[in-house]
Amino acid sequence: MCTAATYRTKDFYFGRTLDYEFSYGDEVTVTPRNFSFSFRNMGLMESHYAMIGMAHVTEGYPLYYDAVNEKGLGMAGLNFVGNAAYKEEEPDKDNVAQFEFIPWILGQCATVQEAKALLKRINLVKTPFSKELPLAQLHWMMADCEEAITVESVKDGIKVYSNPVGVLTNNPPFDEQMFQLNQYMHISPKAPENLFSDKLPLYAYSRGMGALGLPGDLSSQSRFVRAAFVKMNSVSGDSEAESVSQFFHILGAVDQQRGCCEVGDGQYEVTLYTSCCNADKGIYYYTTYENHQITAVNLYKERLDGTQLVRYPLIQGEQIKMQN
Ligand SMILES: C[C@H](CCC(=O)NCCS(=O)(=O)O)[C@H]1CC[C@H]2[C@@H]3CC[C@@H]4C[C@H](O)CC[C@]4(C)[C@H]3C[C@H](O)[C@]12C
């Protein structure tokens, strides 16, 4: 499972958790403006917006899981198993392979509005990257500081949903996820009052009882509700440190600990990494399952007019600061 979220204070933040039982070998990867993208059906894109994000780089190609471009547009791919459907090529459409979707959008679009215009012509095709890396079944959140959308390629075509929460998890399809929020509208950060019966002396014997009923499990629907509640009610200062700290706390609400989600063969899904990108400043912050210290890579410290990928392997292992 994964969860993606947006957050706005003085700046705009975009990030996600990536939950899985093994890592593909992820690196914070900067793609400079003149790295040449060769699309399977759409020709060469020789210059484009620069982007920073988490990718598995193979054969010199950045297979992004999530990224933000220099204009502050962010995009993340999350599992959508059983519902994602990719198509055959079609004439008169932009035939983009699933693994090319992030570069295709972030390379050319500065805003969600611009992305929506491109999405009218898009056809996500089922060309795999390679034999070793078959198609991943994904759906995506795209966001800038103004708005967020969810994009799903399903049996009957491309669906573009406005995403007023700025949160995405996995199944079911996004419209169903949103509908389920209706079930939780009584949940509140405030202390509850006794509406049960005025004939009974019920009272709030603990803080936090306004959120009784908020689902605590790791299913994607429950993580959606929980992340939505925490994000929509989040309060923080607007400095960089306070915003980044709060962002990691929001996604901390859906953190997966090893042992709680068995996926067979003694394997467990865990939160492999959590990211938070300041989309205005191009700073990509991350923590990993084994390393809670926040590490960051700054897009603007790199030569953005270059042609070569810049890759930072994740710093692993707890960084513990001894105080005596
Ligand atoms: C495993 C991850 C989703 C985690 C998740 O949601 N786990 C919940 C399981 S569940 O919800 O219970 O089902 C997803 C998210 C992004 C994916 C990469 C996208 C680029 C590239 C696309 C190529 O086509 C295949 C290889 C490739 C490197 C992909 C590998 C893998 O697929 C990645 C990491």
TrEMBL record:
Species classification: Bacteria, Bacillati, Bacillota, Clostridia, Eubacteriales
Pathway involvement of the protein, from the record: Lipid metabolism; bile acid biosynthesis
Gene Ontology biological-process entries: lipid metabolic process
Organism field: Bianquea renquensis
Domain Choloylglycine hydrolase/NAAA C-terminal: 2-311
Catalytic activity: taurodeoxycholate + H2O = deoxycholate + taurine; cholate + taurine = taurocholate + H2O
Keyword vocabulary terms for this entry: Hydrolase, Lipid metabolism
Pfam families with a match to the protein in the record: CBAH
Domain of life of the source: Bacteria
Family: Belongs to the peptidase C59 family.
UniProt KW Magnesium keyword: no
Protein name from the UniProt record: choloylglycine hydrolase
GO molecular function, one term: choloylglycine hydrolase activity
The EC number(s) this enzyme carries: 3.5.1.24
